[in-house]
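quick one before i forget lol
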Amino acid sequence: MVTETESTEKRFIARWAKHFDEKRYFRFNVEQGLQVVTLAEYKEQGKIEAVTGEYLAHQSQKSRV
């Protein structure tokens, strides 16, 4: 599920279309800053948390949340 996020999202939306249409679905997707962190680099937790925090603190995400 983690490594196939795009196809997983499509299947999820297809299954829960009503919730998606009612804006009850939101995908947290950090777009910048984690491109070089792979699943094997779980020790980078501090960086992952910092970049995710920046993503969530951005005004466009605050209003969505």
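fyi Residues 5-64 form one domain.
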